[in-house]
Amino acid sequence: MGTVINMRINTNSTVQSCYIDTSIQPAQLIKQKLRKSLAKIDSIRSFATYDTFLDAPNPRIFIKDIGDIGLPLAEQGAHLIIRASLQGFGDDWSKAAIASVKRIKELNPEKFELQNPAWQRTLEEITGKIALDIGVDTPTIRAELYKLSLYQRGAKLRPQEETFPSTSTQPRSARQRIPGKESQVFGTLEICLPSKHEGGDLRITHKGKTKILETAKPSEYGYSYMAWYGTVIHEVQPVTSGYRLMLIYNLTYIPSQAPTPAPNFVLEKSGLRSIFALWDRGFKMGEETYPEILAYILDQKYTDSNLEFVNLKGNDQLRVRCLEEACASADFYIYLSNLERRVSGCCDEEEYDKFGYGSGFGGLAYFGHRGDKDEGGDTSFHEITEILEEGIKLKRIVDLDGLEIATDICIKECDIAQPDHFAKGPDEEDYAGSSGSSGATATHYYRRTVVLLMPRAKSTEFFFEPVKNRQLDIKSWIERLAQAVRANPSDSGPKDELARLCQLIIEMNKTFLGNSHLGQFAKSEWESKDMQYSEDAIGRVVKASLLLGRMDLFQEALAAVPQRLSPWIYVDIGKAIHALGFTQIRKELDIAAPRLARVYERYNALDDILFGYELVNSQGSGDKYLIGLEEWAKEKTLESLDHKIPVFQKDGSALVKIIQKYGDEFLFEQVLPFVKVNVSNTAFTMAFLTKLFEAGEGGKIDKSVVTNVFRDTLLELIPEFELSFDSANNKRQKTINDPGDPPSPKSNLCLPIPLVRVMNGHNAANLVGQCISLGLDSETHEILNKLTFESQNTYPSVFESMLLPFLKQLVAVLQKTNAHLHDIRYQHFAQQLLNAYICRFVRTETRDWLRPHYGCGCDDCNQLDRFLSDERFGSVSFSMVRKRREHIASRLPVSRYSIVTMKTSSPYWLVISKTDEGCLSVVKWKERCEKALGWIKGLGTEEELRGVLGLKYEEIVGLSAVRLPTAQFVWDVTPGRRVRLS
Questions:
Q1: What DSSP state is assigned to residue 349?
Q2: Per-residue pLDDT tens for 392-431?
Q3: Is the confidence at residue 436, as pLDDT, over 80?
Q4: Parallel/antiparallel/unpaired status of strands 441-455 and 332-347
Q5: How far is the CA of 142 from the CAs of 107, 123, 229, 862, in angstroms?
Q6: Interatomic CA distance for residues 347 and 381, integer angstroms
Q7: What is the Cα–Cα distance from 38 to 317, expressed in whole angstroms?
């Protein structure tokens, strides 16, 4: 058990002492002393203030469209105010009737003016007195006119509590509207003008204390004013005679100039410093009986959007300011938070009346019940008889400026300073009546706003715990601390916190790596959830360690990398080599490099390390490690050219950069053999050749070397241009829709279909252009011949994914390279490719119009049956009189035919079209024709197409290879009888 102490405050000294006793546990003692000290810090000396004055000037009330109102108020003036209050309703007689029976008449500032300039000076004097009475600085508050109220005989105001914007998200009435966007309301000022009356006393209640403020005594000739914070409950007793005339003001402040306390509270602040000093000593000694955190519940509740210091009111703001000073003196952190306690359990069933209804809102079973008001005005809830689940959570934690620090962190009930913190009952209830075998249950919600206090040394562990559950943005946290270090390098607090956070992340990673064995992954659920998040976090830890100058932390972070560091960190590592020494960190770098298995990843990382080193070197730091670092980078680059690793398109580009850095010798001894081993990966190989060609054109690599490498590589690459489906390649899920593709047993199922070799048509065409530029005519035509051969046997989908884009780009390439579009070799390739596409994709025209006979044997029906049995035609038109048209139409089922009468001539035409599902093949064929024409015409302009297709242009664009001869039929069967088929 930890040491038990008792604190005694020496009020004769600003430095307070404490001595050890055995009467109370330290945690309870600190809570008790904290509560007592804060209770003495009261910003509201009198929660409401009141005074009278007789020598005030007449404000000279002028009501628009009516005139002046004299003071003291006479009967006539009162009637003028009443009349003005009823204006503005127009034809809405219902509202006018309601307003006429109300005994409190109100005028908004738009309807009246205070025309005496001297009244403003009086108002400023009153505001100054109010500031002294309620304990705020005079310059920060303003009184803004809200309304003029007239209480008639019998008028009263029921008990109510103001709800200002900073304490509620609910929209307020006109009372809430504040001139200007910057000011916020914190209280109310009412000035009673000369108007003789009896009754109308103001009753104000705050924390169980009540004040009665009388306005009747000085009312005949004098003035009185009363002011109170918006959080008090106030009511007006009935006016028994006369008229009570009030000017009502909002007391406002500017958030950036929030009301500040007038008293210094020297003793109370000194007491708080002693409490935090005691707490700090006990915590640093490792005593378990000292609290790790404390949450002190504030008087008011604040919404998440208004949770910051400038929005705090009264005692809350003053106490938080005093706590902030005490925390700064003892190396503590202070935050604001909205707390929610949730208690769920069993409760008694609702009592039902004779009609079967319960006392709540929903009868037998309902949800969201907030409780009913009893006679005393309290809210009633169902009593939970058996607790099944409970917990307390800090829903949102912010610093005093409102910056969000964390969300949804659980705490224990013993972490709350006040012992009776939930004695007032819940704020909300969810109730569910019994259903089936389940009894009635209820969930109570208690919501409070707290100030959260903790030692700085504890804050990292406190907020870090949710990181394991991914509830906190650790990247933002590290960056926030790093900014604090940069802003104030001499402050050790942010440095220590940042170092501790980095250490916790490293320890967490080592745990999941399994026995801290580098490079081996732990078999844990965490690994499968979000390993990349940890890699990014470790990168930030590496960067933070360099900012802190903690080389031990830097080396530990490198050792805790799960797989690979984020790319952006390598420049910083290069910079750090000057301070660390290359030999000191080579072991960690040797471990980190193999994790970058891909060629482009490793090359970029090594290049960034060298860049970072040379960046510092350019500032005059010397180059004593440069030669060793360059040799090491070359060695690690060579190791990346492992013939067994998979390659990617980016690797091809990286290889060219390697050649430029290490020379032609490296090309022929290391790079070219590596490319040949992986030549079947056409995307990788073509990317390599493309970048090599660009380097040759730019003069970075000798053009003859480029030509030789092209010739040598293409010798093995061209045979790999296979466009048929190959089971050795990757697979994908594909639904068979294209005609000519492999048939599926069930067309509505997605079956795994082997994918063609990965080759991009655009890149392949560019490769042809590069071969033309390098004078590799033989290789150019080998590529075209290979693609021509493959196109004859490939599936239609390959044309649109690769071959047609290839041909389109080839047309553009031939224009750029000044190659002649009319060259017979290119024309032959384009003609064969497009003919293969048309034949395999569009296919021969379909005219499957055959239908069963429906005729009765008459001449007209015989003509109908001839049409139905002819598979070539889809529609027929008969020119005949009405009876004959009706006879033919009656023979056909309307579900399979379209029957339309065309009244363009006499006799009318009866048009019959075959429309059932048998026509789908024809429709699909026409759609394929349109699609094929779209692709062909999209290959280039008409001039370009005529050039590349030569004499075959009309034949290919007209899709002649798949069209049947067109027949036109217009024939008369007998005189006066006409039939048209199409």
A1: P
A2: 999 999 999 888 888 888 999 899 999 887 877 888 888 8
A3: no
A4: antiparallel
A5: 21, 9, 14, 101
A6: 10
A7: 12
Segments in 294-419 forming alpha helices (H):
314-330
pLDDT band at 165 (very low <50, low <70, confident <90, very high): very low
The Cα–Cα gap between 652 and 709 comes to 14
What's the pLDDT at 556?
82
Token pair, residue 600, equals 């482009």
Q: Are 290 and 330 in contact (CB under 8 A)?
A: no
DSSP string, 359-381: SSSSTTS-S----EE-TTSPEE-
Residue (of 444, 466, 313, 498) closest to 395 by Cα position: 466
Look at residue 287 and tell me whether its pLDDT is greater than 70: yes
Q: Which of 115-119, 142-146, 943-947 has the lowest mean pLDDT?
A: 943-947
Sign of the CA dihedral with 345 first, then 349, 350, and 356 last: positive
Provide the 8-state DSSP code for 531.
H
Task: Write the pLDDT tens digit of every residue in 916-938.
Answer: 655 666 777 888 888 889 888 88
* pLDDT (0 to 100) of residue 168: 33
- Hey, what amino acid is at 79? H
Omega within 30 of 0 (cis) for the link into 255: no
For residue 514, the model assigns a pLDDT of: 56
Torsion angle defined by CA atoms of residues 276, 282, 286 and 289, in that order, rounded to the nearest 10 degrees: -100
Helix/strand/coil for 968: coil
For the whole model, what pTM was predicted? Answer: 0.53
Q: Which residues pair with 734 in a beta bridge?
A: 751
Rounded to whole angstroms, how far apart are CA atoms 409 and 385?
A: 27
565 exposure class (CB count in 10 Å sphere: 0-12, 13-18, 19+): buried
pLDDT digits (tens, 9 = 90+) for 666-720: 888 889 999 999 988 888 999 999 999 999 999 999 999 999 999 999 999 988 8
Task: Tell which wins on pLDDT, 154 or 22.
Answer: 154
Report whether 272 contacts 280 (CB < 8 A): no
CA pair distance 184, 285, nearest whole angstrom: 46
Tokens of 89: 């309703």
Per-domain boundaries in the chain: 48-257, 282-469, 473-563, 566-640, 843-982
Residue 154: count other Cβ atoms within 10 Å of its Cβ. Answer: 11
Instruction: Specify the residue for token string 């660390």.
Output: 580
Angle at 439 between CA 434 and CA 445, to 5 degrees: 90
Return the SS3 of 580: helix
Write out the H or E segment, with its range, that includes residue 972. Answer: strand 969-972
Rounded CA gap, 183 and 252, in Å? 6
In 3-state terms, what secondary structure has residue 223? Answer: strand
pLDDT level of residue 183 (50, 70, 90 thresholds)? low
Kindly report the backbone phi and psi dihedral angles of residue 780, in degrees, each rounded to the nearest multiple of 5, phi listed first: -60, -50
Residue 424 φ/ψ region, left for φ over 0, alpha for ψ in the -120 to 50 degree band, beta for the rest: alpha
Higher pLDDT, 758 or 234: 234
Note whether 880 and 887 are within 8 A (CB).
no
Write the DSSP string, 94-144: HHHHHHHH-SEEEE-GGGEEE--THHHHHHHHHHHHHHHHHTB-GGGEEEE
pLDDT at residue number 314: 74
Q: How far apart are CA 109 and CA 113, in angstroms?
A: 7
Q: What's the CA gap between 665 and 149, in Å, rounded?
A: 97
Q: What is the pLDDT of residues 3-43, one digit of tens each?
A: 333 333 343 333 334 444 445 788 888 999 999 889 888 75
What residues have CB less than 8 Å from 971, skipping those under 6 apart?
Answer: 979
- Give Cβ neighbours of residue 473 (< 8 Å, ≥ 6 apart): none
**Distance in angstroms (rounded) separating the CA atoms of residues 383 and 550:** 57
Residue 973 scores a pLDDT above 50? no
Residues pairing with 328 in the sheet: none
Listed in sequence order, the residues at least 6 apart from 708 whose beta carbon sits closer than 8 Å to its beta carbon are none
CATH of domain 48-257: 2.60.120
